[in-house]
Write a structure and sequence with these properties.
The protein has one helix and four strands, in the order ββββα. By secondary structure, the protein is α+β, with helices and mostly antiparallel strands. The protein has one domain (about 10-55). The chain is globular. It has one helix at about 50-55; strands at about 10, 20-25, 30-35, 45.
C-alpha cells in the first residue's frame, strides 16, 4: 500500500504566484516538482536529504 506524498510550497519560492517549487518529504527522499508544469502524477526530481541540505545551504 503506497502513501500519497504531501506537497507544500518551498520557502524558496517567490510570492508572485503561478511559478513555485513544491517539495514533499519522506524519511529517505526529498521530492521536488514545478507546480506550474507538473500534473499530480507527473515527473519529480528526487534527492537525498544531505543533497537537499547542500543545495539549500549554497544559496
Amino acid at each position: 500500500m503506497s502513501t500519497a506524498l504531501k506537497w507544500f510550497k518551498s520557502s524558496y519560492s517567490g510570492s508572485e504566484g503561478g511559478q513555485c517549487v513544491e517539495v514533499a518529504l519522506t524519511s529517505r527522499t526529498i521530492h521536488i516538482r514545478d507546480s506550474k508544469s507538473t500534473p499530480v502524477d507527473g515527473p519529480t526530481l528526487q534527492v537525498t536529504p544531505s543533497a537537499w541540505a547542500a543545495f539549500t545551504a549554497a544559496r
